Amino acid sequence: MIRLHIPLVSKWDEEINLKVQGLQPHDLIDIMVSVKDDANITWKSYAIFQANEFGVVDPRVMAPLNGTYDGQEQMGLFWSMKAIGSSHSFQKKTVHPSRYRIEIKQNENTIVSQDVKRVLLSGTTCRQEVGGDGWTGTFFRPLSVERPPIIIVVGGSDGGLDETIAALLSNHGYATLALPYFQYKQLPKQLVEIPLEYFQDVITWIFHQEGINHKKMGIFGRSKGGELALLIASHFPEVRFVVSHVGGGIIFQGVGLKNFRKTSSWSLNGTPLAFAPLELLRPSQLWKYLKQKITRQPQVFVQLYQQAIQHLKDDHPSIIKVEHIKGPILLTSSTDDAVWPSRLMSEKVVKRLKLSGYQHFVQHVCFENAGHHIRPPYFPTTARQSQNVIYGGETVSDARASQKFWEELLLFLEKVTSSSSSKEYHESSADE
Q1: pTM of the model
Q2: pLDDT surpasses 70 at 283
Q3: What sequence ranges are listed for the domain Acyl-CoA thioester hydrolase/bile acid-CoA amino acid N-acetyltransferase (predicted)?
């Protein structure tokens, strides 16, 4: 009897064993996997295997003869999935479980099939929609941990509410707050002059929550949120550790105009913070923008940000005073980031901290050949663009980077929340 062995329910960042037994020795089979993302786009992968002499197929130790990935890859059927009828990256911002269909075929006939669930939120975590005067978010509290550390999680320039990373981190024993700051409910529609007081109000709310270790409060920011995370921590000493994921230590021009003029992404006390302007109205850049609008094709923006950085002196007020941060810092970047030069900006942060004699643990992890859209592991990495933005990278490098990112993040969080952080600098490059 042919049997498919796979957990019926598993956590999203958990490696799972998929094994087929009961085949005839050296039988050929197709394994096909399909799922729908939050945009209702269908994603599929496949792999053709030849059973061993015992009639077993085990992707963990066997390479497919053909398929959407190569080599021995335990989770290859998940990260190599390709979208049907879409070129955009896998859409997932909610914590709703994803239902995967696993089919085993021989001679184009399905011989075994099974539905499995991948969950972002475990049954031991409480999810609660919260808010205050002018702010809103989703709070995740692990019920099995007494007085857990608390992490504020902010997203990038795509806006809205993304609960995925906050939910996954809560499964590892951290209280988390997924916090949108524009393009969500009553929040501003554009990323311009977002007041830092908004985040100060959130910090105040956190300090009023019982059962949380307020002395171990940190912030995680992705992309533009990585810039924001460094900025918030430099202003509010209550934040004791920072993760800037493919972010940077420079305040850039806001994404949009205010009263038909350029302005900062952020403000304080009603005044826009100093910012590095982007030459969006240069003829060449304006033509790219108009062409993108006409053809509806996404763009590469990294050169725009590189040009802005070239004009900045080390004492330019748009450079975030990261030396004011009161705790350890984790920076991540990629060498093929097509959105902005995350590697260069992270290196500048490390250099500034060294020159200032920074006394806390600092780590920079750079992912070789990977792009900007590095998510937790096992998201499909075959499509690397949104409607407007090309992210860079390539399928295998992004998949490797996602696993390395998550591993380094969890190690960093364990280190800085379980004991005093090391007073040393540690800069590494992840090129696996």
Answers
A1: 0.94
A2: no
A3: 13-130
For the residues of 97-110, what is the DSSP string, one character each? PEEEEEEEEETTEE
271: tokens are 């005044």
Q: Which fold has domain 125-430?
A: Rossmann fold (3.40.50)
- Please answer whether residues 42 and 34 qualify as being in contact, where contact means their C-beta atoms are separated by less than 8 angstroms: yes
Indicate the angle between helix axes 196-207 and 224-235, nearest 10 degrees. Answer: 70
DSSP 276: B
Instruction: With beta carbons less than 8 A apart as the criterion, state whether 184 and 136 touch.
Output: yes
pLDDT-derived band at 291, boundaries 50, 70, 90: low
DSSP-based three-state secondary structure for 213:
coil
Fold of the domain spanning 3-119: Immunoglobulin-like (2.60.40)
What CA–CA distance (Å, rounded) separates 22 from 9?
23
C-beta separation of 388 from 292 below 8 A: yes
> What is the residue-averaged pLDDT of the chain?
93
- Please give the Cα distance from 371 to 392 (Å, whole number): 4
CA dihedral of 194, 195, 200, 203, whole degrees rounded to 10: -10
The C-alpha angle 168, 100, 223, rounded to 5 degrees, equals 40
Count the residues in the chain: 432
CA distance 397 to 322: 30
Q: What is the pLDDT of residues 411-427, one digit of tens each?
A: 999 999 986 544 443 44
Residues 6 or more apart whose Cβ sits within 8 Å of residue 210: none
* Number of Cβ atoms within 10 Å of the Cβ of 237: 11
Between strands 425-430 and 362-367, the pairing is parallel
Rounded to whole angstroms, the Cα distance separating 173 from 226 reads: 22
Tell me which residue of 252, 150, 159, 270 sits closest to 211, measured CA to CA. Answer: 150
CB 377 within 8 A of CB 16: no
Kindly list the domain boundaries of the chain, sorted by start residue. 3-119, 125-430
pLDDT at 279 over 90: no
- Amino acid 297: pLDDT: 81
Phi-psi region of 307 (alpha: psi -120 to 50; beta: other; left: phi over 0): alpha
DSSP string, 79-146: HT-EESS--SPPP--S-PPEEEEEEEEETTEEEEEEEEEEESS-TTEEEEEEEETTEEEEEEEETTSS
pLDDT in tens, 86-102: 999 999 999 999 999 99
Model confidence over 42-80: pLDDT tens digits? 999 999 999 999 999 999 999 999 999 999 999 999 999
- Answer yes or no: is pLDDT of 239 > 60: yes
